[in-house]
Amino acid sequence: DTAVSQTPKYLVTQMGNDKSIKCEQNLGHDTMYWYKQDSKKFLKIMFSYNNKELIINETVPNRFSPKSPDKAHLNLHINSLELGDSAVYFCASSPLNYNEQFFGPGTRLTVL
Amino acid sequence: AQKITQTQPGMFVQEKEAVTLDCTYDTSDPSYGLFWYKQPSSGEMIFLIYQGSYDQQNATEGRYSLNFQKARKSANLVISASQLGDSAMYFCAMSPSGNSGGYQKVTFGTGTKLQVIP
User: Fold this and answer.
1) pLDDT tens sequence across A68-80
2) Strand A31-37 vs strand A43-50: parallel, antiparallel, or unpaired?
């Protein structure tokens, strides 16, 4: 009964490939997020969705495209992967107007 | 715009002693929330504690307390009676409060790596 789950946990791929990371939350939350944590552990928000609608898009290259098929899912698709995309990607969710965010376990993406 | 500053990249503390992790912030929002998250070596992000900017009392959660000094714009985390399992990265974060269209843009600090020594 994991609250926020992400798949895969590890993703190793070649430059130029396209890949997706899936996120699901079973908490009934309205808002979901994607964060990127770089090699220096800096955590930065990428996107936020509220009830399937894009709310935050933080100057992320358009190679990154989030998709929210329903309130419980927020997937991240990345086209033409680059070396600099290597990072840990965290999905999170929160209830409406509540500050605590619940994080998934992270997906470690390595681009070779 | 929001900014979080954590000036201690790394800290050591003896087991069973208390430790304070520093966090200062800057924001133009009249109402905001401050949090601390723990990230152990296993990588998950664990919520520890939350403080609202209009809360009169400092937040406490078990061995964690948040020393909130609004005038100084600081929100330090105090861990009492440190345990070996407290060794981890600790992130301070903030977001605007209130009905901001159903989302909260959270800004994180750069983190402090805490190591508890037996």
Assistant:
1) 999 899 999 999 9
2) antiparallel
* Contact at CB, B47 and A30, closer than 8 angstroms: no
Alpha-carbon distance B70 to A84, whole Å? 38
3-state secondary structure of A84: helix
B45:A103 CB<8 A: yes
Selecting from A31, A88, A100 the residue whose C-beta is nearest the C-beta of B50 gives A100
The helix/strand/coil state of B86 is: helix
DSSP letter for each residue of chain B: --EEE---SEEEEETTS-EEE--EEE---SSEEEEEEEE-TT---EEEEEEETT-SS--EETTEEEEEETTTTEEEEEE-S--GGG-EEEEEEEEE-S-STT----EE---EEEEEE-
Note the pLDDT tens digit of each residue in B50-68.
998 988 899 999 999 999 9
Angle at CA of residue A98, ends A97 and A100, nearest 5°: 150
Our CA-based measurement puts residue B115 at a distance from the nearest CA of chain A, in whole angstroms, of: 16
Per DSSP, helices labelled H in A8-92 are none
Distance CA B58, CA A24 (A): 34
Using the Cα atoms of residue A11, residue A27, residue A102 and residue A61 in order, give the sign of their dihedral: positive
